[in-house]
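User: Hi! I have a protein structure encoded as tokens and I'd like to know what sequence might fold into it. I'm fairly new to this, so please keep things simple.
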């Protein structure tokens, strides 16, 4: 009986450890308007996925985007910075993970506007199809991923 319990505990530990190593904590800074609800939801989504979020509250997110160099046509609500990359808008943690894994020679990635069904923009099971766009210092844009 005792050994079965030990086995069960070992199992739980192994699963927990595997999960933990799979999802390392990442520091990310999010610039957002304090009144933006979907931005707050996106922050919560990041925290739920083991990101260590620092919120920079600002009433002028456009000024931040300009300063950081987010192309105007890729603008969304919030702007985030992680590990030297810009993450603009309602992006999934998988896309962020992919960005940090492959470290392409770009400035950042963006989901322009606020497509329904993206993290923080959930509405039932509806997902508006959209692309994640990468942008670089020269203003080149490419499809980073399709959703
Ligand atoms: Cu939003």
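Assistant: Happy to help. Inverse folding works backwards from shape to sequence: for each of the 147 positions I chose a residue that suits the local structure. Here it is:
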């Amino acid at each position: 009986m005792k050994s079965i319990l030990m086995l069960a505990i070992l199992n739980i530990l192994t699963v927990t450890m595997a999960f933990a190593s799979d999802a390392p904590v990442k520091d990310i800074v999010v610039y957002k308007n304090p009144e933006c609800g979907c931005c707050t939801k996106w922050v919560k989504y990041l925290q739920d996925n083991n990101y260590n979020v620092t919120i920079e509250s600002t009433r002028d997110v456009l000024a931040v985007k300009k300063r950081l160099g987010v192309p105007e046509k890729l603008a969304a609500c919030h702007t985030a910075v992680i590990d030297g990359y810009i993450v603009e808008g309602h992006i999934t943690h998988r896309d962020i993970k992919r960005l940090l894994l492959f470290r392409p020679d770009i400035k950042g990635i963006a989901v322009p506007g606020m497509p329904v069904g993206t993290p923080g923009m959930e509405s039932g099971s509806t997902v508006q199809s959209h692309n994640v766009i990468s942008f670089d210092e020269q203003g080149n844009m490419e499809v980073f991923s399709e959703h």
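A useful reference point when you look it over: The beta strands are 26-32, 51-57, 79-82, 85-88, 108-110, 131-135, 141-146. Feel free to ask if any position seems puzzling.
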